Each structure stands twice: as C-alpha cells, then as structure tokens.
Description:
heterodimer; A: Rossmann fold; B: ABC transporter involved in vitamin B12 uptake, BtuC; 2% strand; disordered N terminus; binds adenosine-5'-diphosphate; binds magnesium ion
Amino acid sequence: MTDTLSEHADPELHSGEPLIEMKDVGKTYGAIRALKGINLTVRAGEVTCVLGDNGAGKSTLIKIMAGLHPHNEGTMKVDGKEVSFSSPRESLDHGIATVYQDLAVVSLMEVWRNFFLGSELTSGRGPFATLRIADMKRIADEELRKMGVVVKDINQPIGTLSGGQRQCVAIARAVYFGARVLILDEPTAALGVKQSGVVLKYTAAARDAGLGVVFITHNPHHAYLVGNHFVILKLGQAVLDKKRADVGLDELTRQMAGGDELTELSHELQK
Amino acid sequence: MSQTTKTPPSAPAEASNRVTLGWSNRLLARPEVGALVAAIVIFVFFLIVAPAFRSPASFFTVLYQSSTIGIVAVAVGMLMIGGEFDLSAGVIVTTAGLVNAMFCYQLGINLIVGAVLSLVFCLAIGFLNGYLVVRTGIPSFLITLGTFFVLQGANLGVTKLVTGSVSTPNINQMDGYKTLDAIFASSFKVGSVTVEITVLWWFLFVALSAFILQRTRIGNWIYAVGGNADSARAVGVPVKAVKIGLFMSVSFLGWFVGMHTLYKFDTLQAGNGIGNEFLYIIAAVVGGTLLTGGYGNAIGVAIGAFIFGMTSLCIVYAGWDPNWFRAFLGVMLLLAVMVNLYVKKLSTARKVG
Ligand SMILES: Nc1ncnc2c1ncn2[C@@H]1O[C@H](COP(=O)(O)OP(=O)(O)O)[C@@H](O)[C@H]1O
Ligand SMILES: [Mg+2]
C-alpha cells in the first residue's frame, strides 16, 4: 500500500502546506442548519480528525470539500484559490478523493468496474476509446490484495461482497486515485478489528506519503492513533479545535461522550 | 516514506478462497440467456407448426420485421439500462418522417435538406426529454408521456393543417429521393432471398451498442447511472450528460426508422407509430433488461426484437388469427419479467464459500 500511495501522491506536495482552507463555512438544507462558522485547514502530511455524534454535521462538512454540494456561507480555498465546487468531478480533478459513508458503490456492477468508475483507463482518447479491461482487472485485484481483501472473482457484482469488503474497495479506490487529499467518512464504522487496523495503517501511510488526510469518526481511540489535529463538531459547530500537542485522549473521549454533561451525570448516578 | 508499514501479512498471495463458478452459474448470470432460450423454443415451435416459415426467404422477412422494431429498441434498451423510459419513442418515428416530407413538399426543397432538418428536430426533442428529466427530477415515465401526447397530437394536427388530410403527399418524384431511398429503404438479392438494408443497419447498431456498453467508459457510465445515480455522481460520472445523451440516442434511432418508413412507402399516415413505444420496451425487457436499470445488454435486446419479429409473422404463416399476437406478447413480457427477476437474484446472490 505504501508503494501505491507514494507512486500516486503528487510530488509537488510539501509537508505542512495548506491544501484546503475553510473560513466561516456554513451550510443550510432549506430550513435546516447543518453547519455554522467552520474554520478548518487541511495540511499536507497531516491527518485532520473530525469527530462528533450522529447528526453533528461531519458528512455535510466533507461533502462540501468533495464537491457533492456547495457551501452557502463563508469561503473555501483549495491550493490557495477560492473555489465552490459544483460537482464531485471538479474536486477529483484537484486530487481530492473521498470515501463516502452512504454513497459507496453500484451493486450490480463488477468489482473492477466499480474500482475504476469515473476514472476508467482507456487506450486512446475520445468517447469511443476502448477500455483497458485486462489492466483494470489486474490493478483492482492487486490493490485489494494489498488491503488484505481477496475477492473470489474480480468479475463478480460488487453487491455480492460483504459490507466490510465493499468499504475496502471504496477505500482502495480513493487511495489509488487521491493524489493530494484523502477524505474518509467513518471508514471503520462497518469494519471488524482487523480491517479497521488496515484502514488506520492506510491513513498513516497516506499521511507519510505527504497527502492531506481528513479522517471522520466517532471513535476517539481511532482518531488519536493517527491524528495530528482534532476538531469536534456538535450541532454543526466546532466545540473543540486543537493540535495533538494540546489535547490528550482522555479529553477527546470526555468531549465526545458529552463532556461536562457526563461529569454531571456521573455525579448524579453516584449519589 | 514509511518503510515500517509493509503489505499486511494477512493478504494471502494466492487466492486460496477463490472459486471457479460452474458454467451453468456463469451462463445464467448473463442477461440475454433467458431470451436466447425462449427464441430457440419459439423458433423450433414455428418450424413445426408453420410450414411457410421453413424457407430462407421467410427467415429474412422475419429479420426485416425484427429490424423495424429492433433499431429503435437498441437505443431504448440502452436508455433503460441507464434507468429511464421513453414513451415518445414510437410517435417520434412518425414525426421524423412527417417533418421531412411536408417541409420539402410544401417548399419544393431537396429531400436531403429536409432529412437533416428532421434529424436536428428529433435530436432537439430527445434533448428536451433528457433535460426536463435531469433538471426537474420528475420520472421520465411522466415527462415522456407528455411528449408522447404532444407529438401524437401535433403529428395529426399539423399534417391536417398543411395537407388537408391525415397523410403526406407522395414524395418519390422529388430531388434527393434516390439517394435517401438507397440509404434507408433499399434491398438487394443474395441468391433467391431479398435482404432489406435495414437488417444490415440493425446489425450494425446492435454491434455498436454492444461495443459501447461493454468496451467504453460511456458504457460503464450508462450501467452506473442506471444502477445507482448518486454513487455514480459521487465518483465523478457526469450523470446528467449521460442521461441526456441516452434520450438523444433514442430520438436519433427513431429518426432513422422514420426515414426508413418514409422512403419505403413514399407517403406517411400521421397516426402511425402509436403503441410501438411499448414494443421497444418489451423487446428490451424480454432481452433481459431490468426495468429498474443498471442491468441488460445489446445482444439480449436484439434477441427480444427478433422474438417480436418472428412471432408477429409466424402467427400469420401458421394461418392463425393475427389478433392472438398481442396476447402472446403480453405472456412473453410477464415470463420475461419473472425470468429477469430470478436471474438478477442469482447473479447478485453471495457466491459459495
Ligand atoms: N440532504 C439533506 N437534506 C436535509 N437535511 C440534511 C441532509 N443531509 C444532512 N442533513 C441534516 O444535517 C445534519 C447533519 O447531518 P450529517 O452531516 O449527515 O451528520 P453526521 O455525518 O455528523 O452524522 C443532520 O441534522 C441531518 O439531518
Ligand atoms: Mg455522517
């Protein structure tokens, strides 16, 4: 996996440079406010962890970076230039690859077609250039093996894989195509202990290859294993925003679990 | 970079748990297999009960009949794989011919100019269908039902206004007729049998569709858009462009068959084509295309059209009342839907191991 990451990482990345900068970003869905006043910088060679309860706005935040929907307040800069993506294609063209929580794969299509969907390898140019089917099958199989996933048949519809395996295909695909920024929305939620470990190793390897990584989770233990920077969202706002040096695992855990409310609760329960 | 993180030892180098699926399983997972079996059964059945079918000439007549439905069905099948319907596909065939014939006849213009104009007009209707569907999110069933009624009414209304009757004047003496007749409606002899050129066009379009669907990125996108449009968009597939393109392919092939009909008969009835949209859909479904999108292929749709052509003529060859044909089509459709459901379940079921 390290070779995949370093081969595909943009050689122009310099550790610490800001890749995505969000200033006062807000997002409303009609009358529902999902995000407000978010300031977040994704830096090359760092893992930015976004934590928060269900409904806190984590997915909304990364969907803005991924181009799935635009923000309607504040500004977002990618590589120093202000952008507002109108489609995921634009985000991908900036080297930003995303593993979505809820939008993973097309069940009826073969594993290898899913792997390369939207970024197919072709020989020649133009709309009727032929697909390099043999190459795509080989690469998809290799990349999945690197993750420890061996599918029975790379030609089988992806809907026949287990949830964890499907998640791994989505991650392997993003690692393969993400040259600058890798965004992972709760990648370990559907996985067992072993595969969670693999995903965390990938996250660390992506960071070491110089990519900017956004890692979303509600598990502070997973976050603390790989994170350089931590942001906790609550009801669409950041309630904690600290560097690794300034925050410990116990503080993250306490904040995630409800912070002071929990302390109060434990007092009440001890009576 | 990080030399410490090596390939996880958990990754088996060999696919120890890999299974080779039995041939029967692999065969059944293909969309066109059900249709192929049905086609062979029906073929043998009519060879037995309809002696008039047992000649090469009748076989080529069947192919011709199949091609008149099969050409538009090629595009309708692709559209359905892409998850949409087009109920205006039947009447647009007539619209295409009417635009060509009346525009040229009234103004005394070369028919080739009218054919190009008609093509542009049909592509515009296809674009409008697609644009309205992707823009509004209203199901294509409703949008194209609207287009269907508009075109059906306009075909008759405009024809009556222009010619005073419901058919177009004969165009076979006009400039450009010979060229267009040669392209769209000629036939040639091979030995004792007459081969209509539309049969060759049909084969060509089927081959092209099969190639696009299996071997190009656009084909990949068509399956993805029909299978899960949101996931497809998320990985950068231009979902709207693909859908609009599919609607335009339907109107292009509708125009093509419209040209055939016009140059074959030299005059057109403005009320033609109504109901054919269902024949295209039936051909696609009988050929293994899923009504919900994301599954199917070009060969299957071609076999579906062939089953249509074969039964519609063989019922006559067998000397039966042709009215039974529709009843038969309905039964075929129901059987096909059930077979498709079964095949889909089989192909997405967890494999052994
Ligand atoms: N497409 C949408 N339309 C309307 N409301 C939405 C939509 N997506 C998310 N929301 C709302 O925005 C809030 C944040 O959701 P989300 O970002 O998915 O949270 P998280 O990923 O942290 O669990 C929730 O209240 C959710 O109901
Ligand atoms: Mg979420």
